[in-house]
Amino acid sequence: MPEIASRAHAEALTGITGEALDKAGIKLSDVDAFAVTCAPGLIGALLTGVNFAKGLAYSTGKPLVAVDHIKGHVSAAFIEHPELKPPFLALAVSGGHTSIMDVRTYTDFVTVGHSRDDALGECFDKTARVLGIPYPGGKEMDRLASLGDKTAYKFPSAALAGDNLDFSFSGVKTAVINTIHNAEQKDEKPAREDIAASLTDRVVRDVVAKTAKALELTGRKALVVAGGVAANSHLRRAFAEYCGKNGIALCIPSLQYCGDNGAMIAVAGYYEYLAGRVADLRLNADARSGKSRVGAENASLFPKTAE
Fold this sequence. Notes:
Shape: globular
Number of domains: 2
Radius of gyration: 20 Å
Number of helices: 11
């Protein structure tokens, strides 16, 4: 609920900032710059954070740095993998986003594939809700998938056909929900474990296949998998197997850095600051799109065919 979320942010920001400074053993004046998520996300929550960061920057006379949420997720990999250096390929998978990006420099991320509708995390969360699993349902869906039969149900692919690196999770999400509802209308109770296992197997295979194609087309030899859904054990295992077989260096943040966190925004902000990308007090939030470039790069990866 966006309005409640933004109010909760406003209530927590001052206290949690003070707590972070205390734990770090520093004063506000010791901070060199203030990085803040400006997009994409819930607009109310984003505006709360942006305005708070503006106040900190203005009152201390320190620079303000705008950070793209998705670039933040990918940048989390730098925390525990100092050997990681661009260029590399990145897959960002979360409740609101599914994107394949060609990371050319620490600040230049080019989206080459993405979901055209629902995100992978939303697919898991909506399925979990219909199964009666409390939000967020990702962790329990992960556990159930380990117990079920992945061949019990045949769900449609989320990997779009043709020369693209895109996904569509809306169809598979609807198919899963319809399967559950049809069974309930017949007074049947489908095994939650089998639903979770079949869905997980379907989408994990699709995501790995598209990412593998992106690695092949870009020639990158390193892959970052980040975002809240990167905590899924089945996804982590599938990418570890693929990368191990194909000589790809795999970097996945530990679980504490997969979900939204301040550390990843600080890392992304650090590189934006070094690149001289400093915002001013006119900075605004954007619910729909961030600073990452999205354009014709996807199409240009595929050879043109004769008409």
